[in-house]
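Quick question, first post here. What does this chain look like in 3D?
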Amino acid sequence: MEKLGPRPSRADRRAQLSEPRRAVLDQLVEQDEPLTVTRVARTLGQHPNTVREHLEALTRAGLARRDHLPPAGRGRPASVYTYAPEASFTSPEYAVLARVLVSYLTRTVPDGPVLRDHALEAGRSWGRAIVERDRELAGDRTADGAGGRAANAGGGAAARGGRATPTGGPATPAARVPSARVRRDAVDRLAAMLDRAGFDSGTRHDGAVSTVRLGRCPVLELARERPEVVCNAHLGMAREILSSSGVEPGQVSLAAFVEPGACLLHVGADAGAAGLRVGPA
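> Answer (accepted):
Ran it through. Tokens below.
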């Protein structure tokens, strides 16, 4: 039976591998189950000794793990290989940090609504940091151009006795109820950001609801272990980013591990306020 949910992401460390070794690692990541040397060799059309050499090198590099099947009769038990969690993170350091943070949260906060709320809030903080970073980057790109022109325009308005339009302050009601076009654009931007982060995302717009299909997950192992923490953090992050475009948090829900190969993020007035749902309905 095919596993529900996304596949693991592919780490940046793949770029440091030779093409044949990268192909072997990709088999471990794509299949997402223990593989024997014979099976990998047959799939790739390579000699088993060559494949065994690549698998052992990946194991030494911390990108694969070797285990043994239960013994069946005489002889040495067969070895099987799986990808290591570090193979689906940008770096092994990030893998360790993610696991430490999730472990700390689950250790210090009791299971239940309080833990889910903390995970959502952590995700919101993550989303705010992303929005602020993107605004700073956009400011850096326009500082010598549009920024200078805006300052001149503001000075002209003051000279004419007018007032510059404020850029801060609370959002207007209209901004909190985005049009379908604004919602679609916001969802497309979110999907592009998630794609860069390793989620292999794609969008589908269907009337009042937009759906982001998350084909990979850069923290898949942790998400499987503690979806109430990891998936709620992802939901909080998405809600915060979309709220900067006027999408209400209650219009964003996440259906995790609901179909083979993906989780689904739903956005729109008809998406409901279900929040997080794990597994098929």
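Residues 176 and 277 are 25 Å apart (CA to CA).
Confidence is low (pLDDT under 50) at residues 147-175.
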